[in-house]
Amino acid sequence: MESINIPLATSAPSEQRDMTVHVVSVLLQEMDQAGIRYCHWKSNFHIEYALAGEEDLDLLILATDFSEFQRIVLQLGFKGAVSVTSRNQPGVFHFLGNDSETGKLINLHAFTRILTGDHLLKSWALPAERLLLGETRTQRGIRLPSKTAELVLFVFRYMIRHTSILDLYLGRKSRGASLEEYEWLAAGTSVEGTLDKVAEHFPEVLPADFRSALDLIGAPSSLLSRIRLGFRFRRALGKYNRYGKLSGAVRMVLAVSRMAFNRLSKHKHMTFPTGGALIALVGPQGTGKSTLAQLLHTWLAAELAVRTIHAGKPPATTLTFLPTRLIPLARRMVPRQTTRDVDRRVDQDRDYSFPYLYLIRKIMVAIDRRKLLRRAFRDARNGQIVISDRYPSDNPGAIDGASFRPEMIEAQTSALKRALMRWDNRIYRSVGPPDLVLQLKVSVERAVERNLQRDKKVPQDTAYVRQRHAMRIQARFDHCEVVTISTEADLQDTLIEAKNAIWKIL
User: Can you count the helices (H) and strands (E) in the chain?
Assistant: First the structure.
């Protein structure tokens, strides 16, 4: 038999690498035990990266086995996800999973039919399910199609992508990787065996054209030659195109517009059908709220629409912008009436003689927080995940919440002061609750140590950190789930504990 005459891959995947994450390993075992017919149908040159959770898992599932497959993935904690780009891809399902041992986010694409071809729309619904599932092999615990079957699909996809300027542009950086994968697929695969598969499953493709494609991909060739042959493949496979010319053109324009918007706004395209979530990280100074919020954002933003806000330092609104600019001047004029000094007198000395400047400043912060958190609540209800560094508590007098307890208000002799204090409380009552609160705890000595190590121009003084830890009124959240996490331990252990808590409520 004639062999495909190309050089072997110069950088084959590491056969020693075996870092399959736990949740993927369990999924594969459960699928085998249930007798589900499947295979990982593309990009198997680097299958170890998919098993390690570093790349997507692309599983083709026999349609009649999909219900059982879906039961297994949901039972293992995977969650169905949808794309905000609203691409019409029937037979393609997205699931996201969290590996509880490593905290890796697993992106699982489940196919009951093969949609491939162009980068954005996947316009070609090729009837290749029997080809891929007919002869499978097991490697690293996962079922893979034969290299011959995978090579056939690779050639089709590669040639079709030479028929549009957009696909040529999008694929310009991946040509080297595509050639590397092609060399791996073609090594040891016979031309006759590959042509037999093409003739059996895609008789409309001429053997001469497929042979020419093998030659053009595996050897230096002009772009014009590949484009010409690509259009021959496009015509031969045209009956499998899901869209007419006009419909395809309109959809492509919309897809490009959405892609451009997502890239400019740095938004990821996945959300959960069950909706988003507003997640708050609370705790006194030095518990690691900001660090944890940033790490959680990085974890979720790999696949999902997520943003982080800082409720402790809300941006000024139109109403408070100018007065906020005058705060530094006010501090110099009346140094004993700063928020920190008054809070200390209230908490330690129970001195309820609040200056007007302090009351006005509290109301300004409350107005800014209300605007920020109301928008966060709306975004969460529209599918986005919002992580809030700090959040107002339900009980007055705790950190970041309403400042004035009933006895403080009744202690005032000024009716104006009482009105201002009640106004502050009303503003906080108009803020919706989060979906989950991660209440971070750490010893005061550890908090002081972290404060001294902060990379800030003016770190908070040690006395203030101790004061915030010693506050008599502790934050309480009555209308949402609260998970207490100690941040004394290693940061990675703390992060995994936080990820697992979040994943349960998404």
Answer: 21, 15
Q: Which residues pair with 138 in a beta bridge?
A: 143
List pLDDT tens digits, range 486-495: 998 889 999 9
Number of neighbours of residue 357 by Cβ within 10 angstroms: 17
Q: What is the pTM of this model?
A: 0.83
Query: What is the DSSP-derived secondary structure letter of residue 349?
Result: I
Q: Which of 423, 464, 433 is CA-nearest to residue 339? A: 464
Q: What is the dihedral of CA 34, 112, 214, 184, to 10 degrees?
A: -40
Q: In sequence order, what E strands does 196-300 have?
A: 270-271, 277-282
Q: What is the pLDDT of residues 400-453, one digit of tens each?
A: 888 898 999 999 999 999 999 999 999 999 999 999 999 999 887 776 676 666
Number of Cβ atoms within 10 Å of the Cβ of 2? 10
CATH 3.40.50.300, applies to 275-505: yes
Structure tokens at 461: 């003084």
> What element of type H or E holds 335?
none
Distance CA 256, CA 423 (A): 48
Q: What pLDDT score was predicted for residue 416?
A: 95
CATH 3.40.50.300 positions along the chain are 275-505
Residues 6+ apart with CB under 8 A from 248: 121, 123, 241
The SS3 call for residue 252 is helix
Which residues 6+ apart lie within 8 Å of 407 measured at CB?
A: 352
Q: How far does Cα 73 stand from its chain's mean position?
A: 18
Helix (H) / strand (E) element for 495: namely helix 491-505
Which H helix or E strand runs over 233? helix 223-236
Other Cβ atoms less than 10 A from the Cβ of 51: the count is 23
Report CA 394 to chain centroid distance, whole Å: 30
* Contact call for residues 488 and 449 (beta carbons, < 8 A): no
Strands 136-139 and 114-116 turn out to be unpaired
Spatial neighbors of 185 by CB under 8 A, at least 6 apart, are 45, 147, 150, 151, 154
Residues 6+ away with beta carbon under 8 Å from 379: 276, 307, 386
What is the Cα gyration radius of the chain? 30
What amino acid is encoded at 378 in this protein?
R
